[in-house]
C-alpha cells in the first residue's frame, strides 16, 4: 500500500535529457512550431483557393481528393519544384517548370516572419528576450521541412501533377534556409558580421577590395544601386507587357473565351494570369535588354530579330507576344528601358555621400558602378532563371529567357552607360563646389537647419554674448527717464550702462552706504544737493520717521479725548 501511495504521489516529469534540451535551447522548440505553422498556413491558403474553384466548377474532373492533390502540387510549384503532368494526349509525361513568381512570395514571407519571431523570443520586438539565432533558424527550417516532406509524399501518391524528387530535395530546403536566414538576420538588426563572414570566403584580391578603405560603404552603395537598377528594369518590362496587352486586347479576349467556358473557369484563368504577371515583367525586361526570350526550341523573340513562333496554346498573356520579324524602330524603342536603368544607377552612385563632390576618386566611383552592374546582373539572371522553364516536351522544352544571357546583357548596359554617367555627374558636382562663392553652400536648396547642424554650438554660459549681456535694461531705463520729468515734459532717456559682467554683478548692484541722521535734518554746508536718481526709490528710513510722527500725534489726540491709548492707536492707525 505504501508503494502504491508513493508512486501515485510522485509527480510525473519529463526525462532529464528532454529537460536539459528545453532549458538550453528555448528557441529551438519555438522555431520548430513556427516553421510548422508557416508551412501549414501556406498550404492551407493554396488548399482553400483550389477547393473554392473546385466547388464552383460545374464540371469537376475529380473529387475532393484530386483537388487536394492539386493544391499540394501547387504549393511545391511555388517553391520552384518542377512538376510532371501525366495525363497528356500523347501519353508522354510533360514537365511543368515555370514557377509563378507571385506564388513564391507567400512561402518566403511566412518563413521569414516565423524565423524573425522565433529569434526575438516571441516578443515581437517589444520587450521579448533575444534567443540564439542558430537555434531559432534550425528550428524553423526543421519544422518547415517536416511539413514539406509530408506534402511531397502526399502529392506523389496520386494526382495529375507529380513532383520531381530531385527538384523537391533542392528547392524546398533552399527556400526555407534562405528565408529563415533573412528573418534571423533582420531580428538581429541586420548586423555586418554575417556579411563579413561570407565575404571572407572570397580570394585575397577581392577581399582587399571589400575590406579596404571605405570598403563597407562602397559595398553598401553598390548593393543599393543594384537594387534600384533591377527595380527599374522589372518596372519597365511590366510597362512593355501592359502596352502590348492593350495593343493585342482583342486577341487576349478571344484566347480567354476559347480556353474555357463558364465564369468559374475564366476566373481561374484570370488568377493564373495575375500570378504570372511578375514572370511576364521579367520577360519584358529580357526583351528590352536584347537577348529576348524563347517560345520553344529554336524560336527566339528579340527586338532585333524574331523567329516565327510555333503553334502556342491559347492564353491571354501569350497573345501579347510581338509578331515575327522585328528590326523596326518601334521594337528598337524598347531599348529605352535598359538605358534609363543604367542612367539611374550612375546617378544613384554619383549622388552617394562618399562619391559626391570631392569624396571618392574617379577610380573608386568606377569600381562602385561596376559592382552595382555585376550585382544587378546576378539578380536579374536569377529572376530570369526562375521566370522560365519547360512547359512540355519537344518544341515547348525551352520556354522563357536564358538566365546567363540576361545577366550578361545587364552588366554590359549598366557598366557601359553607368560609368560615364556617374563620372559626369561627379565632375559636375565638383565643378559646382569649386564655383560656389566663399561662405555660400554649393547647393542652393540646402536648408538652414542642415547648415546649423554642422556648426559647433557653445554651451550656455560658457562665454560669448550670452555670458556678458544678461538682460537688456534699455526699455526700463527709457520708461524711468520719461517719468522723472514734470507732467507733460519729456526727458531724454539715460544711456544704457552697457554689458555687466556676471562675475562683477554683485559689486555693480551693491547697496549704497547708509546716510547719517544729521544729513537728513538739513543739507551740509558747502555741498550741493545731489539730484535725485531716476531709478532709485525713496530711502526706507524716511518712511519710518513719518510713521513715528503720525503715531505721536495719534497718542496726543487720544489723551485729550480720554480714550484708551491702545484703542486710540488702533482707531487712528497710521496715516496712509
From TrEMBL:
<feature type="transmembrane region" description="Helical">
    <location>
        <begin position="330"/>
        <end position="351"/>
    </location>
</feature>
<keyword id="KW-1133">Transmembrane helix</keyword>
<feature type="transmembrane region" description="Helical">
    <location>
        <begin position="225"/>
        <end position="247"/>
    </location>
</feature>
<feature type="compositionally biased region" description="Low complexity">
    <location>
        <begin position="515"/>
        <end position="543"/>
    </location>
</feature>
<dbReference type="InterPro" id="IPR045931">
    <property type="entry name" value="DUF6350"/>
</dbReference>
<keyword id="KW-0472">Membrane</keyword>
<feature type="transmembrane region" description="Helical">
    <location>
        <begin position="135"/>
        <end position="157"/>
    </location>
</feature>
<dbReference type="Pfam" id="PF19877">
    <property type="entry name" value="DUF6350"/>
</dbReference>
<protein>
    <recommendedName>
        <fullName>Integral membrane protein</fullName>
    </recommendedName>
</protein>
<feature type="transmembrane region" description="Helical">
    <location>
        <begin position="67"/>
        <end position="84"/>
    </location>
</feature>
<feature type="transmembrane region" description="Helical">
    <location>
        <begin position="28"/>
        <end position="55"/>
    </location>
</feature>
<feature type="compositionally biased region" description="Basic and acidic residues">
    <location>
        <begin position="544"/>
        <end position="562"/>
    </location>
</feature>
<feature type="compositionally biased region" description="Basic and acidic residues">
    <location>
        <begin position="437"/>
        <end position="458"/>
    </location>
</feature>
<feature type="transmembrane region" description="Helical">
    <location>
        <begin position="267"/>
        <end position="289"/>
    </location>
</feature>
<feature type="region of interest" description="Disordered">
    <location>
        <begin position="437"/>
        <end position="466"/>
    </location>
</feature>
<feature type="transmembrane region" description="Helical">
    <location>
        <begin position="96"/>
        <end position="115"/>
    </location>
</feature>
<feature type="transmembrane region" description="Helical">
    <location>
        <begin position="164"/>
        <end position="185"/>
    </location>
</feature>
<feature type="transmembrane region" description="Helical">
    <location>
        <begin position="403"/>
        <end position="425"/>
    </location>
</feature>
<feature type="compositionally biased region" description="Low complexity">
    <location>
        <begin position="563"/>
        <end position="576"/>
    </location>
</feature>
<feature type="transmembrane region" description="Helical">
    <location>
        <begin position="363"/>
        <end position="383"/>
    </location>
</feature>
<keyword id="KW-0812">Transmembrane</keyword>
<feature type="region of interest" description="Disordered">
    <location>
        <begin position="515"/>
        <end position="576"/>
    </location>
</feature>
Amino acid at each position: 500500500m505504501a508503494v502504491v501511495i508513493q508512486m501515485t504521489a510522485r509527480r510525473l516529469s519529463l526525462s532529464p535529457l528532454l529537460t536539459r534540451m528545453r532549458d538550453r535551447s528555448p528557441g529551438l522548440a519555438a522555431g520548430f512550431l513556427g516553421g510548422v505553422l508557416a508551412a501549414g498556413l501556406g498550404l492551407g491558403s493554396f488548399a482553400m483557393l483550389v477547393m473554392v474553384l473546385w466547388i464552383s466548377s460545374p464540371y469537376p474532373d475529380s473529387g475532393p481528393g484530386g483537388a487536394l492533390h492539386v493544391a499540394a502540387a501547387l504549393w511545391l510549384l511555388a517553391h520552384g519544384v518542377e512538376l510532371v503532368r501525366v495525363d497528356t494526349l500523347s501519353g508522354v509525361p510533360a514537365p511543368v517548370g515555370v514557377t509563378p513568381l507571385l506564388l513564391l512570395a507567400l512561402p518566403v514571407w511566412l518563413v521569414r516572419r516565423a524565423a524573425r519571431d522565433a529569434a526575438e523570443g516571441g516578443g515581437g520586438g517589444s520587450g521579448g528576450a533575444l534567443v540564439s539565432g542558430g537555434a531559432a533558424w534550425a528550428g524553423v527550417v526543421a519544422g518547415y521541412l517536416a511539413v514539406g516532406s509530408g506534402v511531397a509524399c502526399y502529392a506523389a501518391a496520386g494526382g495529375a501533377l507529380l513532383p520531381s524528387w530531385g527538384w523537391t530535395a533542392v528547392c524546398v530546403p533552399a527556400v526555407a534556409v534562405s528565408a529563415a536566414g533573412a528573418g534571423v538576420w533582420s531580428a538581429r538588426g541586420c548586423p555586418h558580421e554575417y556579411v563579413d563572414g561570407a565575404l571572407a570566403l572570397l580570394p585575397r584580391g577581392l577581399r582587399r577590395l571589400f575590406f579596404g578603405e571605405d570598403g563597407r560603404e562602397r559595398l553598401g552603395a553598390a548593393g543599393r544601386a543594384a537594387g534600384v537598377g533591377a527595380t527599374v528594369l522589372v518596372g519597365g518590362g511590366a510597362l512593355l507587357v501592359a502596352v502590348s496587352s492593350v495593343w493585342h486586347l482583342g486577341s487576349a479576349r478571344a484566347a480567354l473565351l476559347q480556353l474555357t467556358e463558364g465564369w468559374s473557369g475564366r476566373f481561374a484563368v484570370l488568377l493564373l494570369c495575375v500570378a504570372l504577371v511578375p514572370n511576364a515583367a521579367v520577360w519584358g525586361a529580357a526583351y528590352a535588354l536584347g537577348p529576348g526570350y524563347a517560345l520553344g526550341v529554336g524560336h527566339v523573340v528579340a527586338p532585333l530579330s524574331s523567329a516565327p513562333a510555333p503553334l502556342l496554346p491559347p492564353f491571354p498573356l501569350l497573345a501579347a507576344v510581338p509578331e515575327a520579324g522585328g528590326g523596326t524602330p518601334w521594337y528598337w524603342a524598347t531599348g529605352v528601358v535598359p538605358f534609363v536603368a543604367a542612367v539611374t544607377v550612375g546617378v544613384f552612385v554619383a549622388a552617394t555621400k562618399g562619391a559626391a563632390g570631392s569624396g571618392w576618386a574617379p577610380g573608386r566611383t568606377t569600381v562602385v558602378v561596376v559592382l552595382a552592374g555585376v550585382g544587378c546582373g546576378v539578380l536579374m539572371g536569377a529572376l530570369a532563371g526562375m521566370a522560365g522553364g519547360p512547359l512540355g516536351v519537344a518544341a515547348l522544352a525551352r520556354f522563357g529567357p536564358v538566365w546567363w544571357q540576361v545577366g550578361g546583357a545587364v552588366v554590359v548596359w549598366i557598366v557601359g552607360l553607368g560609368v560615364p554617367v556617374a563620372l559626369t555627374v561627379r565632375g559636375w558636382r565638383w565643378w559646382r563646389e569649386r564655383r560656389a562663392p566663399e561662405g555660400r553652400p554649393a547647393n542652393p536648396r540646402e536648408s538652414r537647419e542642415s547648415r546649423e547642424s554642422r556648426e559647433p554650438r557653445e554651451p550656455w554660459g560658457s562665454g560669448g554674448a550670452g555670458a556678458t549681456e544678461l538682460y537688456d535694461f534699455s526699455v526700463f531705463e527709457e520708461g524711468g527717464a520719461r517719468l522723472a520729468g514734470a507732467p507733460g515734459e519729456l526727458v531724454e532717456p539715460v544711456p544704457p550702462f552697457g554689458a555687466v559682467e556676471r562675475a562683477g554683478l554683485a559689486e555693480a548692484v551693491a547697496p549704497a552706504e547708509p546716510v547719517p541722521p544729521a544729513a537728513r535734518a538739513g543739507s551740509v554746508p558747502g555741498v550741493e544737493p545731489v539730484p535725485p536718481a531716476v531709478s532709485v526709490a525713496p530711502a526706507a528710513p524716511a518712511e519710518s520717521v513719518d510713521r513715528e510722527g503720525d503715531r505721536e500725534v495719534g497718542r496726543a489726540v487720544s489723551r485729550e479725548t480720554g480714550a484708551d491709548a491702545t484703542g486710540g492707536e488702533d482707531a487712528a492707525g497710521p496715516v496712509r
